Amino acid sequence: MNTTTDKARPKVAELTERLQREYGERAVTSHAIREQHSHGEGLADAGMPDIVVFPRTNEEVASIVRICNASRIPVIAFGVGTSLEGHVAALYGGVCLDLSQMDRVLEVNEADLDCRVQAGVTREALNAELKGTGLFFPIDPGANATIGGMASTRASGTNAVRYGTMRENVLGLTVVTADGRIVHTGGRARKSSAGYDLTRLFVGAEGTLGIITEVQLRLYGLPEAISAAVCQFGDLKGAVDTVIVAMQLGIPVARIELLDDAQMDACIRYSQLDFEPKPTLFFEFHGTEAGVREQAEMIESIAADHGGSRFQWASAQEERSKLWKARHNAYYAVLALAPGMQAFATDACVPISRLTECVLETQADIVETGLIAPIVGHVGDGNFHLVVLFDPAKPEERAKAEGLAARVSARAIRMGGTCTGEHGIGVHKLDALVAEHGDAVSLMQAIKRALDPNDILNPGKTVPK
Amino acid sequence: MNTTTDKARPKVAELTERLQREYGERAVTSHAIREQHSHGEGLADAGMPDIVVFPRTNEEVASIVRICNASRIPVIAFGVGTSLEGHVAALYGGVCLDLSQMDRVLEVNEADLDCRVQAGVTREALNAELKGTGLFFPIDPGANATIGGMASTRASGTNAVRYGTMRENVLGLTVVTADGRIVHTGGRARKSSAGYDLTRLFVGAEGTLGIITEVQLRLYGLPEAISAAVCQFGDLKGAVDTVIVAMQLGIPVARIELLDDAQMDACIRYSQLDFEPKPTLFFEFHGTEAGVREQAEMIESIAADHGGSRFQWASAQEERSKLWKARHNAYYAVLALAPGMQAFATDACVPISRLTECVLETQADIVETGLIAPIVGHVGDGNFHLVVLFDPAKPEERAKAEGLAARVSARAIRMGGTCTGEHGIGVHKLDALVAEHGDAVSLMQAIKRALDPNDILNPGKTVPK
Known about the structure:
The structure is a homodimer. Chain A is α+β, with helices and mostly antiparallel strands. Chain A contains 17 helices and 19 strands. In chain A, the strands form four sheets. In chain A, strands 12, 13, 14, 15, 16, 17, 18 and 19 form an eight-stranded antiparallel β-sheet that branches. In chain A, strands 5-6-10-8-9 form a five-stranded antiparallel β-sheet. In chain A, strands 1-2-4-3 form a four-stranded mixed β-sheet. Chain A is globular. Chains A and B meet through β9, α8, β11, α9 and α11 of A and β9, α8, β11, α9 and α11 of B.
């Protein structure tokens, strides 16, 4: 699977020579660099590109895509490679466009709470650049992903319950089309009814409809007050039910993260946390001093009704950072439980009223499989992950793990939810996409054919042929 | 323009006979009914359909569209006809699908704060149905439009500054495709990364890519406290600058509406309001008792810095209703200024930092034309309208009015904004769409061809051929 078809081979050789001539050291064919660009994180669906090019401008991206289109050679956009669903694997070889040198923040409009960045800017780099402006970009998927990658997978993460996902926070895009034109979608107005919503079409299209090279983003004022709290529960149901009530009351919590007992145990060991290995909620509140106090009091009282402990507060920046770092390291904490094992993440998201049922059924399912698969999630959105461990040396264990993951997707879909809240379809979930969207997939295929008739843009991903 | 091409005539006759046979009294060819369905509000671009059919189910819509597609006959979806950009005019004749009998609220999920409605449900009917649940649907474009029509034009209105537009509040759709299939997009999860965002593609597509027959909507808990206030200013600049500062501080106001002196004068006369004819802001605050108080105090102090009066409060439901009714009747209040005149609305939306400049330049432009064109707007989003009056008996006055409107669009685009914040493109703004989106329009055209290859769905609208 990981080479361009034999027929295209001579063209590929010609292309790599041409790119090396034009881009010099920014066009690399070494095995090490190609290998590094052949996969993301999670289950390693590797696919080696024939060449990795590091463009710096929209025009360079457009020029490369034009050549690839003329020769029917695949083009795969690459950020920092933190995708979890095999998005960056060059399944049919071709050109990997590593956008990491397109890393400039092009403008920050403080008065309008927006900015424009090149696709290769990471979310941490953006927030570092915003320091001193009083503004921040809240979307936080954990990994220090690029803004282009986050837009392409419709990423979200811990803050989405309050600030929305990339869908809500991208105002406009610069996109290179399959035939190598540079187009601009959306704009700087907060709303518009001018024509089809191309911005939302490219957000989440995983590089299969165009290459995102610039992103116009909403920003937010840093809240006057931020505080974080931890609440532990006797059972998982109490924790999830607390979230449901809080959401139904519309309390504008900034983050609500669930960690089950197994995940807490892993995090306590990995990050030296002073908590018990029980089902736990991490909260963060943003607002005015009075607003934060009011939100926290309401939630603490709901939690108490469901067997929650008193809140343990982390108001100082340093304590909060430690807490969220531990949360972000949940995946690595699980991996550290069993050296030599591999892990991958599931990504169910259901209507909030079904969350308890979905989590409890899933937990029983995990027990039945005998696998280690801690639960962690952005439960304010109804989204939770398992980090499923398996021994790569045992094919039957991998099969069991994949069976569990397939049942998690099917369960979420059956409950009116989705097989992926934030990781995307990539190569792993093409079947789940069809199960979830049925005949609507034919419209996605029609759009793919219309915007990329030669199927050069990240082929084999997102929508089945 | 308002008849199907001569070549299609025999087919149209055959079709209307067949539809009358199948739908009986629900298939109407009388002149009066066809005329009523030939236009929306605003500038009357009338186009008579050959027949108006009143389907009741998804299957009936699908069946009619299938027949029309086979015979290449246009199909135009119709809600209650409150569109302002000529969306419902049957420019090439064909079948008008009046969805007013698809008026059932299919389900309300109180625990998940969502509901599913047929496209013909109006927003007022939905809110009446929600009475007693503690929930409401906030999007309020003024007119009692249908949910299907609001989704199709990506409508918003007075509450959008806090609750977003139809773009943010439609979770999923049932859509009849151009070839007469029934597909479901989106779902009930709050977020998803599963495939292309078809929901956002159909929202705002003005019935040119498919016929929306059902809409899954987000709902919100009724706020614990609501209060409204009026603040009057010595000049327009003070009023607009107040809005800008409030938005930059991120104060979560539910509504901020601007009325200039001319608009206030019209509203005072029309709705017997006890205010002065000065530039005025109407505010509404939603939240907890303490939260509402806090928001209001912050804004009153900002307004005072910009020459605003003390707030005049309307906290009782009845007073608030009177206030917002007056605001919603702004258009009719202007019409009442000069009986016999016609009016239409412009719809500029700009980044908030450019709002004062845009409004003041526009006001000077109005003075220069000598026309009556009061300013009213959802200024929290950077969106404002002129209600431009002209004498239909004087072609040169209409030309002058249209010239003013074209300059308003161009000005908004030049300032990084959009020619339409919420009314849509319809037939009037095809040129402005191209001016705003340039080469990206070619992608819209490609999508139109892919999803409606025979150009039967609302032809002549939204995207130029």
